[in-house]
Q: What sequence folds into this?
């Protein structure tokens, strides 16, 4: 059953094909008689308009991994911490950080799901992890460190629970963490949330990955799955979900 547009306060969910959402400086509208419909989206001063031909189906509004804008720049996300942290040997620590929010609008029916639009209110910045000749281009984001879920703007950013495990026999200093977003599982209620892990293996080597299940929250649309179906690619092949940070944490 589609969620009424009056519940946009919950931000994400499933809607019908007659849609009019307005919240702060965000407007999303799908309207029209019969199969021909007009999609209109405005965020700040940016406007997008498209034609949709459908007489049945649903609209899904969902958080997506924050590496889609602009198109095909990177699949990696770097979160730089506002303060360096030190983790002693054989220790585990849980903390919270924020990540940049991108929002996807999808067309869905019983056979297919198609990205219609992706937008963000954040300023998009990219940086390099490693050396120019063999490094990784990453979507860059800087976050404070929190002991619990912080206050945040749910139209602008999401919350990440980060579990750090130091499996190395020396203290480790961490300033930045890099993730492969092909394995980024985002969940939601009225805000975007994910749970991630960093395991320190050596002095300057670590492994990052995401938890795939969160109790009590809805799973966001898997954008990689949707793109694979659209391009006719195999969706049964296992993708690389981990990222090995081999160039240090600073």
A:
């Amino acid at each position: 059953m589609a969620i009424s547009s009056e519940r946009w306060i919950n931000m994400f969910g499933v809607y019908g094909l007659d849609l009019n959402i307005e919240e702060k400086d965000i407007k999303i509208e799908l309207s029209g008689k019969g199969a021909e419909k007009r999609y209109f989206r405005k965020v700040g001063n940016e406007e997008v308009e498209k034609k949709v031909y459908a007489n049945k189906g649903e609209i899904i509004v969902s958080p997506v991994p924050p590496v889609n804008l602009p198109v095909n720049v990177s699949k990696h996300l770097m979160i730089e911490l506002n303060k360096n942290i030190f983790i002693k040997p054989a220790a585990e620590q849980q903390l919270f950080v924020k990540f940049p929010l991108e929002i996807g609008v999808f067309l869905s029916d019983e056979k297919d799901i198609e990205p219609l639009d992706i937008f963000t209110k954040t300023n998009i910045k990219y940086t390099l992890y490693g050396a120019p000749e063999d490094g990784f281009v990453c979507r860059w984001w800087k976050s404070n460190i929190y002991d619990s879920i912080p206050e945040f703007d749910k139209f602008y950013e999401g919350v990440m629970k980060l579990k750090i495990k130091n499996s190395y026999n020396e203290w480790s200093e961490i300033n930045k963490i890099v993730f492969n977003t092909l394995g980024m599982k985002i969940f939601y209620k009225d805000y975007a949330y994910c749970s991630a892990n960093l395991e320190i293996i050596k002095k300057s080597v670590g492994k990052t990955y995401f938890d795939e299940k969160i109790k009590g929250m809805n799973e966001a649309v898997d954008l990689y799955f949707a793109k694979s179906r659209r391009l006719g690619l195999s969706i049964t092949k296992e993708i690389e979900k981990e990222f090995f940070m081999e160039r240090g944490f600073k």
About this structure: The longest strand covers residues 76-87. DSSP finds one helix and 19 strands in the chain. The helical segments are 223-231. The longest helix spans residues 223-231.
